[in-house]
Amino acid sequence: MTQAHDAPLDSSRDGAPVLELRGITKFYGAVRALTDVDLTVAAGEAVALVGDNGAGKSTLIKVVSGVEQPAAGGILFEGRPVTVTGAQDAATLGIATVYQDLALCDNLDVVANLFLGRERVRGGPPGVVGWMAESEMERRAVDLLDTLAVRLPDVRMPVASLSGGQRQSVAIARSLLGEPKVVLLDEPTAALGVAQTAQVLDMVVRLKQRGHAVVVISHNLADVFAVCDRVVVLRHGRNNGSFVVAEATPEMVVAAITGADAGSGTGARAGRRVGLPAGHAQDAVKDLGGDES
Ligand SMILES: Nc1ncnc2c1ncn2[C@@H]1O[C@H](COP(=O)(O)OP(=O)(O)O)[C@@H](O)[C@H]1O
Ligand SMILES: [Mg+2]
Q1: Alpha helical stretches, state H, 86-245
Q2: In testing the pocket of ligand 1, which one of 24, 28, 97 has its CB within 8 Å of the most ligand atoms?
């Protein structure tokens, strides 16, 4: 198995990746969404997954989170081959996903949203309807939001009255209640303004500090370069480059996204880089930079 192009690149980082995808291939009917895709992420590391619309980013996240099954390829979790055939498998392993639509209940308050589906019942199994330890849930909610430096006016506010950044923060905090080792974020800042984006990026840093392995999909390379350690590029469902952020430029990443040839930059870890006409990179920088939709 050749993993050279996507191996953990910092030799000072301890140990094996928490999550390793090898040769993931996925079809939707006749559509080949992913072909032989590799990805690794280690504890305390944030890997950005980038690529144009339709590149296969969300599909890859769905394969890891058990929503979709790959036609070929394997998933290693803490070095062991695993199958993830549903959301429950992912949760049991310690893989949490925050999807773009967040799935928060607007009419419920922050505490209720955090514990939705896992209401705590003293002495009973999780999820059983009965007397819920409201005060305990509220205390844990406040503690959790505190450690993540999420500032909310009141945890008893309905989430409908929160800002987009605060809602995203609540969704991320909720994903942490199961103490996951891996956190997958699908476009967490796509709908946010500048200040709210900063709030969410700060959370990504805190996830790393807490030792989570983070995979974050983003269209915004400024965000990616601000908080991620590595960037993995997908193009037409294939790996098209992997970069160490400290050694790469946004232009190099854009070239990999668009298929333009950026030359042989030192930080480029071009796995299976395909040669395509140059000249799209500048447009793409513009497009990506302006993406707040
Ligand atoms: N449920 C689906 N049914 C059929 N095709 C799909 C489905 N989901 C995604 N695709 C296709 O798979 C490819 C990858 O999509 P996706 O993973 O959503 O890309 P990205 O998240 O990078 O924009 C695209 O060609 C898309 O049209
Ligand atoms: Mg997507």
Answers
A1: 87-93, 110-114, 134-147, 164-175, 194-209, 221-227
A2: 28
Distance 139 CA to ligand 2 centre (A): 35
Could you tell me if 237 and 111 lie in one domain? no
- Residue that is last in its domain, among 179, 194, 223: 179
How far apart, in whole angstroms, are the C-alpha atoms of residue 262 and residue 106? 45
The predicted structure's pLDDT at residue 189: 85
Domain limits at 212?
4-94+180-289
Whether 143 and 269 share a structural domain? no
Q: How far apart are CA 81 and CA 15, in angstroms?
A: 17
Pocket, ligand 1, Cβ cutoff 6 A: 28, 31, 33, 51, 53-59
Per-residue model confidence as pLDDT tens digits over 32-59: 999 999 999 999 999 999 999 999 999 9
Ligand lying nearest the CA atom of residue 53: 1
- So what's the pLDDT on residue 285? 41
Which among 21, 26, 53, 59 is the best mutation to test ligand 1's pocket, defined by most ligand atoms within 8 Å of the CB? Answer: 59
Q: Are residues 194 and 67 in the same domain?
A: yes
Query: Residues near 160 by Cβ (< 8 Å), separated by ≥ 6?
Result: 106, 107
User: Which band of pLDDT confidence, cut at 50, 70 and 90, is reported for residue 224?
Assistant: very high
Domains in the chain, number: 2
Amino acid letter for position 131:
W
Q: Are residues 214 and 240 in the same domain?
A: yes
Least confident segment among 9-23, 67-81, 131-145: 9-23
- Statement: the pTM of the whole predicted model exceeds 0.85: no
Task: Report the chain's mean pLDDT, rounded to a whole number.
Answer: 82
194 with 80, same domain: the answer is: yes
